Amino acid sequence: MSKTVIQEISGSVSQITLNRPESLNAIDHVLASELREEILSAEMNKEVRCVVLKGAGPAFMAGGDIRAFSERIGNGVDRYMLDLTHDLHDAIIAIRRMPKPVLASVHGAAAGAGFSIAMACDMIIAAENSTFTLAYSMLGVSPDGSSTHSLPRLIGYHQAMELVLLSDRFGTEKAKELGLINFVTAPENLESETMTLAERLGNGPTAAYGKAKSLLNKSLERGISDQLEAEAQGIMESSRTKDFVEGVDAFLNKRRPQFTGE
Questions:
Q1: Residue 235: which pLDDT band, with cuts at 50, 70 and 90?
Q2: Sign of CA dihedral 33, 109, 137, 102
Q3: 3-state SS class at 49
Q4: Is the pLDDT of residue 31 over 70?
Q5: Most buried one in 17, 41, 73, 145, CB count within 10 A?
Q6: What is the pLDDT of residue 1?
Q7: Closest CA to 107 of 189, 15, 49
Q8: Helices 224-238 and 206-218 sit at what angle, rounded to 10 degrees?
Q9: Mean pLDDT score of the chain, rounded to an integer?
């Protein structure tokens, strides 16, 4: 049986591929469990300085595996949902926690959990043919995968409620207008442009990226005084790194810095 999530590492970049193309990468418990394992592996691997999350086949992820849910109705579907979401949420927490950038590379459908997972990433590059929908309300369930945490922070309460309650499908133009995605590219260029961006991030000042990510993650939970103190601690700790020494020397000598992530 082939793995439903595959990780490949090239240089400083980990590519994690959702690998159920025959079902548009619909999430079941196996995929959720394997996604958790591969995300945690990338988080712990010190050689990995950027993570790319993408889907095999014609879609990023078309939501939950409805057939798997249907087979369990009246026979433990509630426990199945709980186990699936616990593994998925462990992966989401690791994406938000790991001190390195996580880039979602989206094409085709990003629906339900696929939408939620993409929104949990640090940046999103999408092919022009991508479509987005939360979709949960169409099944009569509430969202998972952290979308109820990320969306109000990204687009505000009322816009988030619109996406949650109506589950309308929309394309990259609206996604870009709402600020949900960073970059849009032609489908045939998605892979190359994703890797160009990933390699740029993977060769950057990883420790500084990690501190910046932590600061942004916690900014809405802190008052201004606490946030400023965290910034002071972060830049102080960054000044102890080899990358800071390299950055200063490169600036003074008018050359491009060669960061090592240390």
A1: very high
A2: positive
A3: coil
A4: yes
A5: 145
A6: 59
A7: 189
A8: 170
A9: 96
What pLDDT is attached to residue 2? 78
Pairing of strands 5-10, 50-55: unpaired
Distances (CA, A) of 181 to 89, 108, 165, 174, 239: 21, 14, 21, 10, 32
- The first and second tokens of residue 208, run together, are 């500084």
Q: What is the rounded CA–CA span in Å between residue 148 and residue 129?
A: 25
**pLDDT surpasses 70 at 219:** yes
Q: Between β-strands 102-106 and 61-62, what pairing exists: parallel, antiparallel or unpaired?
A: unpaired
pLDDT tens figures, 83-134: 999 999 999 999 999 999 999 999 999 999 999 999 999 999 999 999 999 9
How many Cβ atoms are within 10 Å of 248's Cβ, its own excluded? Answer: 12
The CB-based long-range contact list for 229-235 (8 Å cut-off, 24+ gap) reads 235/211
Q: Where are the alpha helices (DSSP H) in 74-141?
A: 77-97, 113-120, 136-139
| Bridge partners, residue 123, by sequence | 103
The Cα–Cα gap between 195 and 105 comes to: 9
